[in-house]
Design a protein that fits this description.
The complex is a heterodimer of chains A (about 280) and B (about 425). By secondary structure, chain A is mainly alpha-helical. Chain A folds into three domains: about 30 residues; about 160 residues, Cytochrome Bc1 Complex, Chain D, domain 2; about 45 residues, no CATH class. In chain A, about 45% of the residues lie in helices and about 5% in strands. In chain A, strands 1-2 form a two-stranded antiparallel ribbon. A two-stranded antiparallel sheet of chain A has the order 3-4. The longest helix of chain A is centred in the last third of the chain and has 30 residues. Chain A is globular. Chain B is an all-alpha fold and about 425 residues long. Helices cover about 65% and strands about 0% of the residues of chain B. In chain B, the strands form two sheets. In chain B, strands 1-2 form a two-stranded antiparallel sheet. A two-stranded antiparallel sheet of chain B has the order 3-4. In chain B, a hairpin with a 2-residue loop joins β3 and β4. In chain B, α3 packs across α10. The longest helix of chain B is centred in the middle third of the chain and has 32 residues. The two termini of chain B are about 30 Å apart. Classes of the chains: A mainly alpha (about 280), B mainly alpha (about 425). Chains A and B meet through α1 and α9 of A and α4, α5, α10, α14 and β3 of B.
Chain lengths: ~280, ~425
């Protein structure tokens, strides 16, 4: 009886897939942004066994620090996170020194005055602007988004039927793919297309044909010390990986634990299957 | 099938309790000796799976509440604090967020099982209606829970959904103001939603007790949809149903863990990782996936109908789509419960299932998107029409025009006939 039910479900499922794929195929596209789907990159942290690449996170931090942080804040990340397990893996001493190169207002002290002191590992990354209004004023009216969660806050709709496949063949790297594509995606507008004053054409932008951020990086702008090629593409990948870590600092732990939980549950389910079979043996049903 | 209790206290402490509070007897009768039809298939394990998910949600929710701050300036950051700084916080939060989706997946399987096998028919009407009430409470709890992280979709989802109430004439506006605690979604909204989000699961637990009580009075339906005749048709709950339920619960946990550990954000919306901003409306506001079919029905009504404008019409259609479920026991006029013996019903039922999925898809696209040469909103109208036709026309008529296949004499006979092949 169950077999029959499963057959029915399978037929219904197949019919559903067929119906909806034809829908997807026939879907006429009005203008949908981004004009170009993000390029898929190879990420060390993709897939079931994926883990962050420490060296890449360190390079990514360097790019963030030397380039992005001029405009983009990262308020949710603290210096101490740089030495956390599963992160870029800086030493605690290095983090202490690094943090102390920035100052922060503290206080009031015993005299009731506010004072500046060097940052501690427990302090957050400094923000480039005092507040959002200052950030807008300095950037032609556009607010450079905070980068703490950017890699999880941007995902280009995959549409039907892709999202169904993504369920079983996980694709959770849409954010870094998008960011890396955007950084390297600037180009001259095609003939006949004019972009609004003060914006830059980028067919990878999620919300229109152009954005206010100028092309942020070029070859050889950041000096890597480990001999990694100093190309725009490499910078884009490294900083995107770093942003993914900033948004999801416990990814390594999550995937490690996930494997153990999965193995446990599968073995447990197997045992329960035999228990059930034993219990029901000799009982027609 | 609340028959005679077979429990006999054997130990001294068992006898002591039996004379004062026969709770062991209650548990024994409910979870051990309770007779269950022996022909139940795997779909019948989803009741147990749902009970498990309710416990998971309450336990993870209580832990989250220890670290969460329901104040509009810090709510978003407190959730991120859980994700970053609380020990195992990321796990608890991903379990809870994905747990809501798993809860709905399980409840949809449970509901469609009931629809197919006619589990709503006499004598199970109250059992069914209690289920509809649980479903409504679940929707309210899930909606309010989604507001708590105070992301962009939280805020704008809350704005759109509470705005439904203003569609009601005269009382609409005051109800909305009371619900959100002001004239726009703000800190007051967040606070009352948090309070209610903590309350509702316990109301659900209460109604679940009634649901199970009613189930134990009338007994389980089964894939044949015929009444249990005698002991030959049943097996005791323990160990038979327990062993099967346990296996399927763990299989369900594997599915759940797959999302929690490998794609915890697949079922959420990326915009909810942007803090709520009343000044920036997202390009495309969509509810959580489990509300999408109803969202499609809401948006399908874009025309005025006499004194009912399109807004009120949409809201009525949406709530009507849920309310109609409560009347199902009387709308389906067929005396035969199981769809297995109803050739025409079977077709209508599977169409209904596909149609519900299609409505979900329509809820996720923009109304003016072109799909198979037609605007999504036109498809939504057709789909909404079928949704209501199924309940209000097809099911009432089928009882009169459909000729069901012959029913087996008893569950035991059917099993013997099957194993004789």
């Amino acid at each position: 009886m169950t077999a029959k039910m499963i057959r029915w479900a399978a037929v219904a499922f197949a019919a559903g897939i067929a119906l909806t794929s034809s829908i997807a195929a026939a879907q006429e596209t009005a203008v949908v942004y981004p004009l170009i789907t993000p390029t898929r990159h190879e990420w060390s942290f993709a897939g079931i066994f994926g883990q962050y690449d420490k060296a890449q996170l360190q390079r990514g931090y360097q790019v963030y620090k030397e380039v992005c942080s001029a405009c983009h804040s990262m308020k949710l990340v603290k210096f101490r996170n740089l030495s956390d397990e599963g992160g870029p893996g800086f030493s605690e001493d290095a983090v202490k020194v690094l943090a102390s190169t920035y100052s922060i207002q503290d206080g009031p002290n015993d005299a009731g005055d506010m004072f500046e002191r060097p940052r501690l590992p427990s302090d957050p990354f400094p923000s480039p602007f005092a507040n959002d209004n200052a950030a807008r004023a300095a950037n032609g009216g556009a607010l450079p988004p905070d980068m703490s969660l950017l890699a999880k806050a941007r995902a280009v709709h995959r549409g039907f039927p892709w999202f169904v496949f993504d369920m079983f063949w996980p694709y959770q790297e849409q954010g870094p793919d998008y960011i890396a594509s955007l950084i390297t995606g600037y180009q001259d507008p095609p003939e006949g297309v004019t972009v609004p004053e003060g914006t830059y054409y980028n067919p990878h932008f999620i919300n229109g044909i152009s954005l206010r951020m100028p092309p942020p990086i070029d070859n050889d702008v950041v000096q890597y010390s480990d001999g990694t090629p100093q190309t725009k593409e490499q910078y884009a990948e490294d900083v995107s990986a770093f942003l993914m870590w900033a948004a999801e600092p416990h990814l390594n732990a999550r995937k490690e634990l996930g494997l153990k939980v999965m193995l446990f549950l599968i073995v447990f389910a197997g045992i329960l299957y035999f228990v059930k079979r034993q219990v029901w043996r000799g009982v027609a049903h | 099938m609340s028959g005679h209790s077979t429990y006999v206290p054997r130990t001294a402490i068992g006898k002591w309790f039996e004379a004062r509070l026969p709770i062991v007897r209650l548990l024994h009768d409910t979870a051990v000796s309770y007779p269950t039809p022996r022909n139940l298939n795997a779909l019948w394990t989803f009741g147990g799976i749902l009970a498990m998910m309710l416990v998971v949600q309450i336990v993870t929710g209580i832990v989250l509440a220890m670290h969460y701050a329901a104040e509009s300036h810090v709510a978003f950051r407190s959730v991120e604090g859980i994700m970053r700084d609380v020990n195992w916080g990321w796990l608890i939060r991903y379990l809870h967020a994905n747990g809501a989706s798993m809860f709905f997946i399980a409840v949809y399987v449970h509901i469609f099982r009931g629809l197919y096998y006619g589990s709503y028919k006499a004598p199970r009407e109250i059992l069914w209606i209690l289920g509809v009430i649980i479903y409504l409470l679940m929707m309210a709890a899930a909606f309010m829970g989604y507001v708590l992280p105070w992301g962009q979709m939280s805020f704008w989802g809350a704005t759109v959904i509470t705005n439904f109430f203003t569609a009601l004439p005269i009382v609409g506006q005051p109800i909305q103001t009371l619900l959100i605690g002001g004239f726009s979604v703000d800190n007051a909204t967040l606070n009352r939603f948090y309070s209610l989000h903590y309350l509702l699961p316990f109301l659900i637990a209460g109604v679940v007790v009634l649901h199970i009580w009613a189930l134990h009075v009338v007994g389980q339906n089964n894939p044949l949809g015929i009444d249990v005749k005698n002991d030959k048709d049943t097996v005791p709950f323990t160990p038979f149903a327990t062993s099967k339920d346990a296996m399927w619960m763990v299989l369900f946990l594997i599915f759940y863990a797959w999302f929690v550990f490998y794609q915890p954000n697949f079922l959420g919306h990326p915009d909810n990782y942007i803090e709520a901003n009343p000044l920036a409306t997202p390009a495309h506001i969509v509810p959580e996936w489990y509300f999408l079919p109803f969202y499609a029905i809401l948006r399908a009504i874009d025309f005025n109908l006499g004194p009912i404008d399109s807004k009120l019409g949409g809201v009525l259609a949406m709530f009507g789509a849920i309310a109609v479920l409560a009347f199902l026991p009387w709308l389906d006029t067929s005396k035969v419960r199981s769809g297995r013996f109803r050739p025409i019903f079977k077709v209508a039922f599977w169409l209904f299932g596909l149609n519900a999925l299609f409505l979900g898809f329509l809820g996720s696209v923009k109304t003016d998107d072109i799909i198979m040469g037609m605007q999504a909103v036109v498809w939504a109208k057709l789909s909404t029409l079928y949704y209501f036709l199924y309940f209000l026309v097809i099911l009432p008529l089928l009882g009169y025009i459909e000729k069901p296949r012959p029913l087996p004499v008893s569950i035991n006979d059917a099993i013997l006939a099957k194993s004789a092949h």
